[in-house]
Amino acid sequence: MDIKFLDLQKINLQYQEEIEAKLLETFRSGWYLLGNEVKNFEKNLAHYIGSPNAIGVANGLDALRLIFKAYLELGQMKAGDEIIVPANTYIASVLAITDNRLKPVFAEPNIENYNIDIAEIEALITPKTKAIMVVHLYGQVCWSEELDDLAKKYNLKIIEDNAQAIGAAWNGIKSGNLGDAAGFSFYPGKNLGALGDGGAVTCKDSLLAKTIRTLANYGSEEKYINKYQGLNSRLDEIQAAVLDVKLKYIDQDNEKRRSIAEKFCSEIKNPKIILPIFPEEKKEHVWHLFVVRTDHREKLQNFLQENGIQTLIHYPVPPHKQRAYRYYNHLSFPVTEKIHHEVLSLPVSPVMTEEEVEKIIEILNKY
Ligand SMILES: *Cc1c(COP(=O)(O)O)cnc(C)c1O
């Protein structure tokens, strides 16, 4: 029995009939962009998140890029301003900042949950700081009252990279509705995945929402009249139709991930493997990834491979060590670098069988 890291085919076949009916309907409608499917999905997504605004865009990176671009257009940020961002994140979070000629200021993570260490943030604030980007990494909410107070005290925006955490909540508030604006990704492997690329922004300020919508459509509100130098970043009708079907089941899918994670946390018992902490408040984590740490990662990964269990690494090289950011290569973030050397992601998904879960536990306990 081979266990795939993520069986996308099986995930989508859960909703085969409904998805296929919607695909056919959209195909036959003759309307493929900026239509009712996107409008409908945006309305349902906004309602689900509890946000007054949702805007469908082409992908998760664009969602984040457009948030900053809109703040620049609105004069609330300017080139050279500083944005505090976790050093331990996927590179997209950082690209969204630098693409807008803003400056990323990296903050170390907390080794307990791998998210930005909120206690480290205040020391990084300067007169140029305009925002804090939090990334709800691996599906776990990164939020606290202290963070909120800090943002208020220094008049900073909080941008959420919610690419990995749709459905998670803090104190009854969904991620994507905690800060000022949030970017979502519907990359096929995310908890809410499209059949291709897709993304969305949610935000509280309706003027910001309007600016993002305009920027994503060539900077145009009225056809052939261009208010900004925008981009073409639209969610298409087919993706929106599929996402709207899957959105109805996201809580159910996340709940399955959570029950697998809970079982892993209580039944994997091996001193060589550091498990993630299952949060006391269950809703704070939607387990996009189940990430363990170990000293000899390659050895563990090979052992699992030999036993038919596919694993991945999220992520092997942090943004500040990438060639793309060679002018940051000299920076040192020991906690981030340690995490990048030790992490390994185990399979977790809403379609894993009981036997698969048992087998993973058994093999890990044997290692
Ligand atoms: C997936 C992801 C993104 C980017 O989303 P795309 O849709 O692939 O552009 C951004 N940030 C994080 C943390 C992600 O995991």
UniProtKB/TrEMBL annotation:
Annotated protein name in UniProt: dTDP-3-amino-3,6-dideoxy-alpha-D-galactopyranose transaminase
Native organism: Chryseobacterium salivictor
UniProt-listed InterPro entries: DegT/StrS_aminotransferase, PyrdxlP-dep_Trfase, PyrdxlP-dep_Trfase_major, PyrdxlP-dep_Trfase_small
Sorted UniProt keywords: Aminotransferase, Pyridoxal phosphate, Transferase
One MF term in the entry's GO annotations: pyridoxal phosphate binding
Active site: 190 (proton acceptor)
Enzyme Commission code(s) on record: 2.6.1.90
Family: Belongs to the DegT/DnrJ/EryC1 family.
Positions carrying N6-(pyridoxal phosphate)lysine: 190
Biological process, per Gene Ontology: polysaccharide biosynthetic process
Pfam families: DegT_DnrJ_EryC1
